[in-house]
Structure formats: structure tokens, C-alpha cells
Write a structure and sequence with these properties.
The chain is α+β, with helices and mostly antiparallel strands. It is built from six helices and ten strands, in the order H-H-H-E-H-E-E-E-H-H-E-E-E-E-E-E. It is elongated. The two termini are 39 Å apart. The model has no long low-confidence stretch (mean pLDDT 86).
Length: 199
Amino acid sequence: MPMEKSALLSGGGKMWELYQLIINAVLERGGSDEDVERFRKDRRLIGKFADLIVSSTKPTIVPTIIIDPAKPFVREMARESGWKLKKEIVYEPGAVKLDFIELLYPGEQAVNGTEMARRADELCAVLGQKHAEAFMTQYECWAPPVGVLYATFPGTVWEGKSGYLYVPCLGWDGRRWHLSFRWLDRQWHSNDRLSRSRK
């Protein structure tokens, strides 16, 4: 279905007024003409700007998944890679509303895996791989809030053949989510989120 043309596009005066407002806002925040030009040319930056506008006017969708504890892993890493299941939560059957919550404290750039796991326990954000896989089944193309690229499910921990520990993680590529397993002892950054059941 073709996208409807905005009334703004057919009104040159309104478009110029909008562009002037953007320029003024950039300059008022200490930006320069080069920053304005970058906004004009950088499609990813324009996309983030559009995401902010749309997300502020549309109601937030709360992902709700259904858990069946008897359902096996979609990606059984013991069979797929010879890994050992080092830690696993007890899954409660039924509906789970998901929250993706901040991991870092204000001013922090990153934390290591030990601290990530400690904070996950402290925040009761220890959902597991079956939660991640249930999310993929229903919400593979659900766009996360701006700035969120990864959602971690540290309730499941796998041990690789080398002895390193891995946790399931969903990664957003701009169009859909992908399930992978990330080394636990890596650095966890501001675009990482912990997954938690919403009360």
C-alpha cells in the first residue's frame, strides 16, 4: 500500500518553517552549521528524530508473552554446540509482561559481566532463554525504544567448550530481533537492557 503524502510536503512555506525551527533548536544547544548539515544528510539521524516524535505520540506497547515450561529450547545449545547448561531458572506457566530496564547508573559508561549479573539479581531481572524465544515468536519485528539495541536474559547461563560463560541476548538490527549468546564477561553498555517481568 503506497504511503500517503504528508500535507506538509505540499506546503513549501510550512516545510521551510519546520526546517528553521530545527536549525534554531540545534544552534540554541551549542550546535553549528555543520551539525545542521549532518542532520540533513544522515538518514540514520533523521530516523532517530522520527522515532522520537512517533514514540512520544503513540501509546507504548507492552510485550506480553506466554510461557510453557514444558516447551524445549528452540536453540538447544548442548546439542547445537556441545555447551553445558550451567544455570537455569524455574519457569512459571502463563502470561508474562516484559520490561526492558536500564542496567547502568547515571554517568556510567559500562560495567563488567559480574556486576551486570549482580544488578540483574538485585533488580529481579533474571528471565531466561525461554522468555527470549517466546518473545521472538510474537514480537520479532517489534521496534524497541530509541537507543535500545540489546535485551539480555541472564536467568539462563551456558558454559562453552572453552569454559567461558554465555547468556542469551536479543539484538535489534533496525528491522527485527535476533537471538544470540553473548560472552558474560564482556562489557555491558548503555544500549544494553535487562529483561524483567512487569508487576
